[in-house]
Amino acid sequence: MSDILKELAATIEARKSADPESSWTAKLLSKGPEKCAEKFGEEAVEAIIACAKDDRENLTYEAADVLYHLTVMLASRDVALDDVLTELARRQGVSGIAEKAAR
């Protein structure tokens, strides 16, 4: 599964230098990290609403949007997806309660 996310991250990284008139990703990135974060937030709210309404089909669609916009937001601040995946791997097998207590 992480392969598709890694491919997405690579595509987004490549679009950083694309013409904003030819790429939605480039257009979004050209507006800066704040706009990328705002768009991520909008998509997250839409996913929350779909979940609350028990709309499985729309939740699936919105969750894909959330993952895309999260990846764009990370790229806007030069945070590598691999760094996020490494952090998830570090937490694997650790109790959520123990992990939070260690912060």
Summarize the structure in short.
It contains 6 helices and no strands.
Mean pLDDT: 93
Kindly state the percentage of residues in helix: over 70%
Compute the number of strand runs. 0
Can you count the helices?
Answer: 6
Q: What proportion strand?
A: under 5%
Uncertain runs: none
Largest sheet: none
Overall, the morphology is globular
Which radius of gyration do the C-alpha atoms yield?
A: 15 Å
Distance between the termini: 28 Å
The SSE order reads HHHHHH
Classify the secondary structure makeup into a structural class: mainly alpha
Description:
The protein is mainly alpha-helical and 103 residues long. It has 6 helices and no strands. The radius of gyration is 15 Å and the shape is globular. The protein starts with a helix and ends with a helix.
Q: What keywords describe this structure?
A:
103 residues, mainly alpha, 6 helices, globular
Fold blueprint:
Blueprint: H1 2-15, H2 24-30, H3 33-52, H4 56-76, H5 81-91, H6 96-101
Helix pairs in contact: 1-4, 3-4
